[in-house]
Each structure stands twice: as structure tokens, then as C-alpha cells.
Automatic annotation (TrEMBL):
UniProt keyword list: Chaperone, GTP-binding, Hydrolase, Nucleotide-binding, Zinc
TM stretches of this protein: none
Pfam families attached to this UniProt entry: cobW (PF02492), CobW_C (PF07683)
Domain CobW C-terminal: 204-276
Domain CobW/HypB/UreG nucleotide-binding: 2-118
Catalysed reactions, semicolon-separated: GTP + H2O = GDP + phosphate + H(+)
Protein name, entry field: CobW-domain-containing protein
UniProt keyword rRNA-binding, yes or no: no
Keyword Zinc: yes
Family: Belongs to the SIMIBI class G3E GTPase family. ZNG1 subfamily.
Length: 285
């Protein structure tokens, strides 16, 4: 960093067994690295031929992450590397049939509905910028509109879900922050108060790997929500873009929160969030 200014990009290639969820928060929040350095995004390269085997691998064969999770299927390194990715390159597409490729892509998107997916042969992409570099994954929310809904039956371990966020009064941001703290720091869903009765749950606790969201505030401003594992931030966006009320009404300005992780029960998450925000209408999808 003494040579600050002389780098265009810094690319870290991790080991094949790395958990990006342990690395990304370090680079995202460490101001000591200097203001010219920021975490641009996490790219995961997937081998189309072997990925299904890797996702289904017997955890006893996995050197890390040999944990069980509430009786659910085991988390493999492949799951972690896909769930934390902002861009996923599915390579060696020529070595599988179109049917196999469609299945691979569907499963990957069911795990991570936020990431941009590129399908390649010999890892060839049209250009680096905006495909693998200059992603601004942690300071932008461009891909929220295309975030896929979870189809958790495709992968039993990790899924993506989208919760709608209602138009929020400024005071609700504190409630949102408290809710996120409980979810990300304590892996606990605050029980919703009225009108939802709280029922004891035997479900495994939610474990969120990545989250991204946009909320519209009644004052006409917007906030971006970003998170990776237990680190998150709620950041005001400069431009509210005119009448927020109008945006809500014509359906183009709906706030949402996209969550990727384990033990995702969309309905329970939606009820809990809605309760935390004062019953303002979040329900899982
Ligand atoms: N058919 C086909 N072969 C490929 C493609 N991309 C790479 N290969 C070949 O696959 C072989 C192994 O390369 P990779 O799988 O990329 O190996 P690697 O990722 O560098 O290996 P590790 O870093 O040790 O995992 C090489 O012979 C490559 O030429 C592709 O899209 N299609």
C-alpha cells in the first residue's frame, strides 16, 4: 500500500477451499487499507462438469465445513463459494449437454439469485470491465431488479429469498437495523408481535451469507442495505428520484431485501421483518 496509486486492480485468487465469507468482510470494512481501495466484488469460477458432484459431495470427504445443520443437507465449500459470489462464471460449458447445463445454472441461481451468471468456454468473456472488474457489488444495487426468487427444492442447503420492503418512515430504519443485528449477529429471528402469534419453532436458525436491499423512505430518500455474514451497513443514497409515493404506486419503486443463506424460511423471515417494522406488510417470497 506504500505504492498506493500504482495499482489499477488488486485481484486475490483464493485457494480452492477458501470461504469468501471470511475474506470479504475484511476488505469491505477495513478503512486502514486506504480510501482508494474498496472491495469491488467476489467472482466464483464454476466447472460445469464437476459442480454438481462438488455440491453433493459427502461432507466427510470435504476437508472443511464438516458440519451438520439441523439435520439439513451439508454445506460444502462449493456452496460457500457460490453463495458469496457477486459474479459466477460457469466454465467448460462445452463439456456438458445443454440439459445438464440448464440444470447446473438453475441450481446455481437457486443458491444465489443475486449474482450475475456468465457461461463460458475456456473462461472467455467479452471484456474484463463490468464482467469481472468494476463490479461495484458492495456499493451498488443494480442487480436487485433481476434478483431471482428462491426455488429451494433445487438445492436443499442454501437458497435466496426476496422480501418486499414497504415505504418506511425514517424512524423504522432503527427497527430495521435492530432486526438485521439480531438476524446476522445472533442468527435469531425476532418473534413478530401482533398480529402474528409467536409459535415455537424447531427450524434451524437462519444463517445469512449475503444480503442486499433497497428501501424507500417517506421523506423521498432511499437507503441501500448491504451485508456479508455478520457485517452490514445501511447507507443513504443521494438521489430519491422525485416522489417516492408515486414510485410506490406505479410499482417501479418497491423496496426489497434479498437474502442468501441457510435455514431460509421465507415466510418466517417475512413475518418477523414485518413485525419488526410495525406490521408494514413484508411477506416472504
Ligand atoms: N473442454 C474444455 N476444457 C477446458 C475449458 N477450460 C479449461 N479447460 C481445460 O481443462 C484443463 C484443466 O484446467 P482447469 O480446470 O482450468 O484447471 P485449473 O482450474 O487451472 O486447476 P486448479 O487451479 O488446480 O483447479 C486444461 O487442460 C484446460 O485446457 C473449457 O471451457 N472447456
Amino acid at each position: 500500500m506504500e505504492r498506493r496509486g500504482s495499482f489499477d486492480y488488486i485481484i486475490l485468487e483464493t485457494s480452492g477451499l477458501a470461504d469468501p465469507g471470511n475474506l470479504a468482510p475484511l476488505f469491505w470494512v477495513d478503512d486502514g487499507l486506504g480510501s482508494s481501495i474498496y472491495l469491488d466484488g467476489v467472482v466464483t469460477l464454476v466447472d460445469a462438469k464437476n459442480i454438481v458432484l462438488s455440491l453433493d459431495e459427502d461432507p466427510a470427504e470435504s476437508e472443511e465445513h464438516e458440519e451438520t445443520y439441523g439435520g439439513a443437507r451439508h454445506l460444502t465449500t462449493a456452496h460457500l463459494q457460490i453463495s458469496h459470489a457477486d459474479v459466477i462464471v460457469i466454465n467448460k460449458c462445452d463439456s456438458v449437454t445443454p440439459y445438464e447445463l440448464a440444470n447446473v445454472e438453475a441450481r446455481i441461481r437457486s443458491i444465489n439469485g443475486l449474482a450475475t451468471v456468465h457461461k463460458t468456454q475456456y473462461s472467455q468473456i467479452p471484456q474484463l470491465e463490468s464482467f469481472l472488474l468494476d463490479l461495484h457489488a458492495y456499493d451498488g444495487i443494480d442487480n436487485l431488479d433481476t434478483a431471482a426468487q428462491g426455488h429451494s427444492h433445487l438445492d436443499p442447503t442454501i437458497s435466496t429469498t426476496t422480501l418486499p420492503l414497504p415505504l418506511l418512515p425514517p424512524t423504522a430504519l432503527t427497527a430495521l437495523e435492530t432486526w438485521l443485528r439480531s438476524l446476522l449477529w445472533e442468527n435469531t429471528l425476532p418473534a413478530p408481535s401482533f398480529p402474528f402469534p409467536s409459535t415455537p419453532s424447531t427450524a434451524p436458525p437462519p444463517e445469512i451469507h449475503r444480503l442486499k436491499g433497497l428501501a424507500y423512505i417517506t421523506t423521498g430518500s432511499r437507503v441501500m442495505i448491504q451485508g456479508v455474514r455478520e457485517v452490514f451497513e445501511i447507507v443513504p443514497l443521494d438521489n430519491g428520484g422525485g416522489s417516492t409515493m408515486k414510485k410506490q404506486e406505479d410499482g417501479t419503486g418497491k423496496g426489497k431485501l434479498v437474502l442468501i443463506g441457510r435455514g431460509i424460511d421465507a415466510e418466517a423471515l417475512g413475518r418477523s421483518l414485518s413485525g419488526a417494522l410495525g406490521g408494514a406488510g413484508a411477506s416472504g417470497g
